[in-house]
Structure formats: structure tokens, C-alpha cells
Amino acid sequence: MALEHKKAADFSEWYLELVQSSQLMDYTPVQGCMVIRERGYAIWEKIQSFLNARMRKDGVRNAYFPMFIPESLLKQEAEHFAGFVPEVAWVTHGGDEALGERLALRPTSETIMYTMFAKWISSHRDLPLKVNQWCNIIRWDTKALKPFLRTREFLWQEGHTAHASKEEAEAEVRRALDWYADLCEQLLCVPVIKGKKSDAEKFPGADMTTTIEAIMPDGKALQCGTSHLLGQNFAKIFGIRFKTADGKEDLAWQTSWGVSTRLIGALAMVHGDDRGLVLPPLVAPLQVVIVPIFKTEEDKKMALRSAEKLIAALDAKGITTHFDERDERSPGWKFNEWEMKGVPIRVEIGLKDLAKQGMTIVRRDKGEKEFLDDAKAADYIATQLDAMQKDLLLRARAEAQSRMFEAKDYAEFKQLVEKGFVKAGWCGDARCEEAIKEETGATLRAIPFDEKPKGNCVFCGKPAKETAYFARSY
Ligand SMILES: [Zn+2]
After folding, report:
1. pLDDT score for 141
2. Structural domain boundaries of the chain?
3. What's the pLDDT score for residue 159?
4. At what angle do helices 166-182 and 38-57 cross, to 10 degrees?
5. Which residues surround ligand 1, an ion (CB under 5 A)?
6. Cα–ligand 1 centroid distance for 431 (angstroms)
7. Closest CA to 230 of 217, 219, 240
């Protein structure tokens, strides 16, 4: 049952085997498109709940817009259009009838949404307007496809806001980025770096893009979420104007931000091991599995009676459980299966445990067996779920830290970038950024918000204007 490929030896193959064997996803006859299976989708629903709660508090409301975007709309913002057109899938026919105008399957929804914003916003009283949609996105990627990380159709949320001032919009950009960082760290136990993108890496049509980036175990960066300050660029083109309090007319300031199902891939990569998935308790669809060890029907009934009390006690604490009473599988087989699926805690109830009025508990991340009295089990399990959530983040932080480096010069940079993130000075010139990318395959991932530039540009040696993180990426 264990994975054929080992995480340390063959990371890429290990990941592919992991996400399929743990039943997070499966391949389909549609090239580049996968199924997110029930267990994977349940994780997505946890992500949705986490973000919906944050957004609701901030006054963001969910809505749904069409997935078809007329070409003329998409073309209106030139930079935006140029940025997306290589990956757009087009609808050209309805039945046998050629359409008068091609329809893009949304690669992102700024243009369709802002056409509507222009209709809905006329006064400062209509602002801020904060709308989010959970939807699918189509990007006809031709690069190597990878489950969750790069597929032609994926799921995401896109938040879009319009404000009366630049300051308000900037605050919204940072607020959304903070939700994303909290989501990654508190829910998924995936530590991230926050910062802004260079002009070369920013969202097409935005004034500024902010990002959270995580380091995967192979040293590659994974962009986990972005939040954009769109300025008044789209407002100008789509005519999102409003009357100010003193009767003047102004253009709205806008933001957009999103995270996608690639977060599920990050989660699997960071925590998984050679036995399968390891899920942080807060995001695990099933938190505790109870496996009875029995030879006769009578033993099984006794184990079930003991489990029923535990299930009721855990239920009262809001902890999800499953009693695995299948006869056709051995306990060992079941242990392996639930380990593959990443269930945080396994409870074993056998005759020896019953004789001592207790049970055996195994945490997925530690793998050690502990015996517990019946009376103490529920409280102890609850404590261990909390502890595991914290431990996974701490362990992931330590691992990420071990893949973060600082380079004094370009020779050192080239060596270190093989292993992870490299922090280095940058003069701000896009030509240095481009040269680094061409020669090392590393892109500028993020310019941290609160770091003062020091030293020189790692490429050209001129005084640094920024301190930046570089890495190869997914
Ligand atoms: Zn330079």
C-alpha cells in the first residue's frame, strides 16, 4: 500500500502517485483536466468556509457571473488581453451556427464583472462594492500539466472590489493577502512569504501585484495566492465613475484577488510522506478513524460498544469520526489505507485494549502507539488534534527555513538557487531580472514588504533598490 516512489528520492513522481493513490484526484479522458474527487473536494470546502468567514466580516458578498466573455470585452484593456490571450479557449459555435463574436471561456473575470460594476456604481454611496465569486477558470496551458498545480480547468475564488480612494483599495489588497497567508498557515500549515511582484511578474492590467509564496520540499516556489491593486486602469476603460460627496466626479479604485485549488497540491507536497497524505486536523475531511481488531463477530460487537461512547464524546466536541467495521479487510490493510488518506488520528480497539478498558491511539505524523484509558480518550484525542495542527506548521516552517538562503554574489546565487529561495539585492532593472531568469531559471518571486534594500544587485553590482526572493517555480 505504501507509495512506490519515495519523497526524498523522486519528488515529482512521488507527488503524482500520492495525489492519485490518496484519492484526492483522478485523470479523465479530457487532456489537462482532472476530477477533484470527494476527499479533495472536501478540503476545498474547508478552504471555502475559512475564506467565506473572513470575507463576510469584511462586507464581501458572493455572486456568480457568466463564464462566457465576449472577445470585445476582453480586448478592452490591452495589457490584460495580451497577458491572457495565449491561454484563452474560445467558443466559436452554438450548435452548427457560427457565432457573430467569439466567446472566451473566462481566464479571469475582471472585464465581465466591471462592465456590470459600471452599471451598479454611480455615487460614493455605492462604494465600496465588494463581490466575490467561487467558480471554474479555463486557461489553455501548454506547459507540463500537473494535478492541482497546472490544469486547464481549475477552481478558484476571485474577489473584486471598487473603492472611493486609493488608500481604501490599498488596504483591501493587503487585507485579502493577510486572509490568504492565514489560510495557508493556520488551516493548511503551509508557511508563506508575503511580498509584492516585480513589474515583469505582475498581473496584466494591474498597478501592483502582491503575493504569498511557499517553498515546496524540492526547493521550488509555489505561488499560493495573489492580490492586485488595479488602480483606476479598469475603471477608466469600463467607465466605473461615481459622484463624490462634494458633487465632483471620480473614477473608482479597484482591487482583485484570488486563491485556487492549487493550494490542495501545496498541502499534499508539504506534509505528505512515503506512506501517503498527512492532513492537518483542521482541514481533514475525517479526523479520527476507529479500527476494531477482531476475530469473531462477538469481539467486533464489544469493540463497537466501546467505540460508540468515544464517538459520542468526540461528536460533542465537533470532531469527525468513522468506525471501520469492514470484515473483508485485515486491520493492517485498513491502517495502511487510512494512512494513505492522511487521517490525523487512528484509534485501534482490540481484545487486549478492551481487557484493560482502553484503546490504542496513533497520530498520523508521529506513528507511535499510545495506550489510553476509555475515560480519558476523548479529551486526549482533542488535545492531540490541536497539537498536531501546531506541530505540522512548526515542522513545515523549519523545513522552509532550511531552504531559504542569502547570496552575496552571483556565483553563490547560482549554486543556492538549485536548493531553494535565495534572497538577494536587486537594482530594480528588468534586464537584470530577465538575465537571471534566462541563466538560472529562477524568477523574482516576491519583494518582501518590510525589508530595506542593502548591498548591491546580485547580477550587475549596482546599488540595490530592493531586496528580493528568487526561486524556480511551479
Ligand atoms: Zn542589476
Report:
1. 86
2. 11-271, 288-384, 404-471
3. 98
4. 140
5. 427, 429, 432, 457, 459-460
6. 7
7. 240
Superfamily of domain 288-384: Anticodon-binding domain (3.40.50.800)
pLDDT of residue 450: 87
Tell me the C-alpha distance between 266 and 404, whole Å. Answer: 17
Q: What is the reported pTM?
A: 0.96
CA distance 365 to 318: 21
Residue with C-alpha cell 464581501?
60
Q: How far is the CA of 465 from the centre of ligand 1 (A)?
A: 9
Distance linking the first and last C-alpha atoms of the chain: 28
Say if residues 103 and 69 touch (Cβ distance below 8 Å).
yes
* Distance from residue 439's CA to the centre of ligand 1 (Å): 14
d(CA 310, CA 394): 29
CATH architecture of 404-471: 2-Layer Sandwich (3.30)
Average pLDDT, consecutive stretches of 10 residues, N- to C-terminus, the chain (474 residues): 92 98 96 96 98 98 97 89 92 97 96 97 98 97 88 97 98 98 98 97 95 97 98 96 96 98 98 98 98 92 93 98 95 97 97 94 96 96 98 98 96 97 97 98 96 93 97 96
Pairing of strands 369-373, 208-215: unpaired
Ligand 1 mean position, distance from CA 435 (Å): 9
Looking at domain 11-271, its CATH superfamily turns out to be Bira Bifunctional Protein; Domain 2 (3.30.930.10)
Residue with cell 493548511: 188
* Bridge partner list, 405: 422
DSSP state of 64: -
CB neighbours of residue 166 within 10 Å: 13
